[in-house]
Amino acid sequence: MTRAILGTRRRLLRVGAALVLLAILMLAGAPAKAFEDRGAHVVIDAASGRVLDARKPNHLRYPASLTKMMTVLMLFRALDAGTLTPETEIPVSAEAAAANPVKLGLPPGSSITVAEAIPALIARSSNDVAVAVAEALAGTEPLFALEMTRVAREELGMTRTTFRNASGLPDDAHVTTARDMARLARALWRDHADRFPLFATTTVRHGGRALPTYNPLLARYGGADGLKTGFTCAAGYNLAGTALRDGHRVIAVVMGAASSAERLSTITGLMDTAFARLTEAEAPDAALPTLAGLTTPRPLRAVPPPDVEGCGGLYAGGWAITLGAYPSRGYARGLAANAARRHGGKPMTAPVGTGGMIRHHAYVTSLSQGQAQSICRQRQARGHYCLVRSPQMMRGALEAVTRLRRSMR
Q: What is the average pLDDT across 391-408?
């Protein structure tokens, strides 16, 4: 009798806790529209500038390290102006050396030549090099970002782009569109043809090591010769790519993919279709719009996705389970990754709490409702904590994380 009563009490406590959690999440607000679909793309014929395919081309997105295409363009312009030469040494400040990974790991007080910096930015997406370049060209990174934005908007027609840094590291105001990134990619090809082969760099040599490029398109797609990858938790997986086949050059920009594999399969599929379209016609279809023709007639409401700190993956929709909240972000990531390998789905973490009370939730997402319920039953049967989360609950919870992060600035 005593065991039965205790078992009933435990079940009631679990149900009560779940109801309280549900009530808290319902108060977090409506589902965040930004989580519904981060995907956007533009595909153009480089020669004519005509758009072969486009989806949400003017919707604001985070560029992540696609930003470094603009940083490289600013270096190219400095070389053209004669203010720098390929042999010019770029000093590495303490601020540059302290940049977040990915980076070469340049120590403060060292230097890197312009000729070394360009492939490091393109192939290795080096954030320390990006900061050093910004400081060399403008004195400070914020001043460099202002000049990047001015050139982008006034000279390249990237009307919806705002840069806040030289690397693409997260900043809520650092935004662009797929259309704008396609304009940037075309400008690099059109205006800097002699240096454009640098975007096909597959290996960077530094400190006695041969460091491979992060761009999978170069090895996986025939005729590919550029340009740049990008990823942050908020941006998703981005890729600006270009390829040459049978005398036709295609430029494609894919933004907001949920994984590196999805990013690659999407851009290769778009390029295949674009090349087929160009091959079928002797001349580009005059009825196709140009990039200028994709300009939005009125401003679109900005809905970039929340920047969830510490994410071990991306919330790409679907049902989810939460495995608990832990002081260590690394532990939460590992727990989520192991559970995803065992049961399927995608791992993700997100912070909750304030000050010294911050904990990191471990999630497995992209599940069906049946999968989520089945996994939790299995884990609970083994004595492990597990709660099922609907898509609405996840969106509300992660939007609350964003509001919390902003309030702590």
A: 66
Residue 27: pLDDT band with limits 50, 70, 90 = very low
Report the pLDDT value the prediction gives residue 297, as an integer from 0 to 100: 53
Q: Which domains does the chain have, with CATH numbers?
A: 11-32+306-407 (no CATH), 39-294 (3.40.710.10)
Residue 79: pLDDT band with limits 50, 70, 90: very high
Q: Are 227 and 185 in contact (CB under 8 A)?
A: yes
Handedness of CA 236, 237, 242, 243 (dihedral sign): negative
Ramachandran bin of 156, using left for φ above 0, alpha for ψ from -120 to 50, beta for the remaining angles: alpha
Round to whole Å and give the CA distance between 244 and 223.
5
Three-state secondary structure string covering 357-385: HCEEEEEEEEECHHHHHHHHHHHHHCCCC
End-to-end, the C-alpha distance of the chain in Å comes to 54
pTM, rounded to two decimals: 0.71
